[in-house]
Specification:
By secondary structure, this protein is an alpha+beta fold. The protein is built from nine helices and eleven strands. It folds into three domains: 109 residues, Release factor (Methane Monooxygenase Hydroxylase, Chain G, domain 1); 142 residues, Alpha-Beta Plaits; 76 residues, Double Stranded RNA Binding Domain (2-Layer Sandwich). The relative contact order is 0.10.
Length: 366
């Protein structure tokens, strides 16, 4: 029993410390403050402001409830353990075993302190030079991230998909919805390199292929970005794909080009041209917002004299299928030999290695 009490006290100390650092008590007070405001007769006189307050309260409540629930479970188990009743040992052992991985996961997620780490993510994959070989690699990456999302309980919405001429795909853009989706996936942005015996080469020679992964937080509201309509070139086209009831016969798909920056966004998954246009504009705002944020971070780093990563020009991770099996992240040196598991979506170890290195302030070189 003493060992169980010791473990529970360690968990309690860890959770209490994290709750203090994250200001959970202050956030609970903010919830009460918004609730009092919502009870006022004039609260809904400004619907836009009221809606923002309610969204803020809902987000805070989700976070506060999550931390308070785990704290309550630990406190309840500790009270039982301190009774000293040996007949409760099996029950308490089961509870401690269940609590430990939850505490470990929450402690790690608490380190994701970026303002958008908890947001949904927009992830784009683009085949590099190399035709069919590179396009097949892009499709393999698409499958990898779909499997990762499924394994982690995230929902995926395919926003735009451009298939290759013979096989694979030229590009795909997807929204990945779930807690900390952007926080975890930030490790994936960059160039991914594949080395294998090509199934498209009659001579069965070894080929190297590249694909680029891009990422933006999927913030569909509260993005303070003004877009001049005169800066946009909007084209419509017929949504392509493998067929089915959602493939439209009319020009419902939308492509928006932001002329000053050259950013191009496309959306084809909605049922109407207007819906595709609105979603494409949301994605454009997210991309412009992220571009400005990265620019500000780079300027601040330069003022501090820090090393600035100019972009994603170099490979971040290699997937070698021949002459040996290995997946290696070149920024953290984390590597595994089970390539099949990684390509089947087992990415959390790579993501956490990257995030821990980033949190610890280590230099992450591409």
């Amino acid at each position: 029993m003493d060992n169980l009490i010791s473990l529970l006290n360690e968990m309690k100390s860890q959770i209490d410390g994290l709750m203090e650092r994250l200001g959970i008590a202050e956030k609970a007070q903010r919830i009460e403050e918004i609730q009092r405001e919502a009870e006022q007769n004039d609260f809904w006189n400004d619907p836009e402001s009221a809606q923002k307050s309610m969204q803020e309260m809902a987000a805070l409540k989700t976070e506060v409830d999550r931390w308070q629930n785990i704290a309550n479970r630990i406190n309840d188990a500790l009270e039982l353990a301190e009774l000293g009743d040996d007949s409760l040992i099996d029950e308490l052992t089961t509870e401690v075993d269940a609590l430990q991985p939850i505490v470990d996961r929450m402690a790690f997620q608490a380190l994701l302190s970026g303002p958008y780490d908890r947001e949904n993510a927009i992830l784009g994959i683009h085949a590099g030079a190399g035709g069919t070989e590179a396009q097949d690699w892009a499709q393999m990456l698409e499958r990898m991230y779909l499997r990762w999302a499924e394994q982690n309980g995230h929902k995926v919405e395919i926003i735009e998909r451009s298939e290759g001429e013979e096989a694979g795909l030229k590009s795909v853009t997807m929204s990945i919805k779930g807690d900390y989706a952007y926080g975890y996936l930030q490790s994936e942005q960059g160039v991914h390199r594949l080395v294998r015996l090509s199934p498209f080469d009659a001579a069965n020679r070894r080929h190297t292929s590249f694909a680029k992964v891009e990422l933006w937080p999927d913030i569909q509201s509260n993005i303070d970005i003004e877009i001049n309509e005169n800066d946009l070139r909007i084209d419509t086209y017929r949504a392509g794909g493998a067929g089915g009831q959602h493939i439209q016969k009319n020009d419902t798909a939308v492509r928006i080009t932001h002329v000053p920056t050259g950013i191009v966004v496309q959306c084809q998954n909605q049922r109407s041209q207007m819906q595709n246009r609105e979603r494409a504009l949301q994605i454009l705002k997210a991309r412009l917002f992220e571009m400005e944020r990265k620019k500000q971070e780079a300027e601040l780093a330069q003022l501090k004299g820090e090393n600035v990563d100019a972009g994603w020009g170099n490979q971040i991770r290699s997937y070698v299928l021949h002459p040996y099996q290995m997946v290696k992240d070149h920024r953290t040196d984390y590597e595994v030999g089970n390539t099949g598991a990684v390509l089947d979506g087992r990415l959390n170890d790579f993501m956490e290695a990257y995030l821990r290195a980033k949190i610890q302030g280590l230099k992450l070189e591409s």
